[in-house]
Design goal:
Helices cover 41% and strands 15% of the residues. By secondary structure, it is of the alpha/beta class. The protein has an 8-stranded parallel beta barrel with strand order 1-2-3-4-5-6-7-8, surrounded by 5 helices. The protein binds 2-phosphoglycolic acid.
Length: 253
């Protein structure tokens, strides 16, 4: 059985005091709830403050990006060792916003995935097609390629520690989400691709999330799908109420 994982990607939002009150509120409202693994992915500047608040709890901490070298003259970059040092369990790699605005490629995603794993940090790898690619019927081939390239050279034993987030670009921050069964189909394809590369057993252990306009009103539709093991939540992770409602998707808050 794969334990569902719901991660909040705060993107470039929230100062330290704002981040603290968000995390405090979520922790308070989710006390004793452990059916879902919950991960906060704040900006780098909030990582330490969030770590202090979640110390001794089952909440996880994730960064939103990482560089692939351990250290060196790379002004502005953060290494996997530094993320480990600050207490990160996870790191988001290859988010479509980084691919679009910051020159992230399948090759740099792959370098980052391997570097994160080597440092003991679990990658949350984002894949997803644009609207034009979907309309051109390229979704399957693109997702397959992004998955294969991201995982090139990774050891099969590491696969269960990896999370993949399927995030159709046209659904991110737009209010338009994919349908549950459409997302399930693509996620099934990702699992099949991983099984083809590494064998069925690790592929069955790997968790694959859906992301893109996840809200309290549609989370259940995704979580009901057999292939979907959680969600990567952007906008709705920035407020206590909506994030908690998403995490408790089976009960009312
Ligand atoms: P959204 O973002 O939930 O605001 O659509 C998701 C993401 O970019 O990870």
């Amino acid at each position: 059985m794969r334990k569902p994982i719901i991660a909040g990607n705060w993107k470039m939002y929230r100062t330290i005091p704002e981040g603290r009150s968000l995390v405090k509120g979520v922790i308070e409202k989710l006390a004793g709830f452990d059916e879902v693994e919950v991960v906060f992915c704040p900006p780098f500047t909030c990582l330490s403050a969030v770590k202090d608040l979640i110390q001794g709890t089952s909440f996880g901490l994730g960064a939103q990006d990482v560089y692939w070298k351990e250290e060196g003259a790379f002004t502005g970059e953060i290494s996997p060792l530094m993320l480990k040092d600050i207490g990160c369990d996870y790191v988001i790699i290859g988010h479509s916003e980084r691919r679009e605005h910051f020159g992230e490629t399948d090759q740099t995603v792959n370098l980052k995935v391997k570097a994160a794993l080597a440092a003991g940090i679990k990658p949350i790898i984002c894949v997803g097609e644009s609207l034009a690619q979907r309309e051109a019927g390229e979704t399957e081939s693109l997702i397959k390629r992004q998955t294969e390239l991201a995982l090139q050279g990774v050891d099969a034993a590491a696969i269960p520690r990896i999370v993949i987030a399927y995030e159709p670009i046209w659904a991110i921050g737009t209010g338009k989400s994919a349908g549950g069964s459409d997302a399930n189909e693509v996620i099934g394809l990702i699992r099949k691709t991983v099984a083809g590369l590494f064998g069925n057993e690790p592929a069955q252990q790997m968790r694959i999330q859906y992301g893109g306009s996840v809200k309290p009103s549609n989370i259940k539709e995704f979580m009901e799908q057999p292939e979907i093991d959680g969600a990567l939540v952007g906008g709705a992770s920035l407020e206590i109420e909506s994030f908690v409602e998403i995490v408790r998707y089976e009960t009312k808050v």
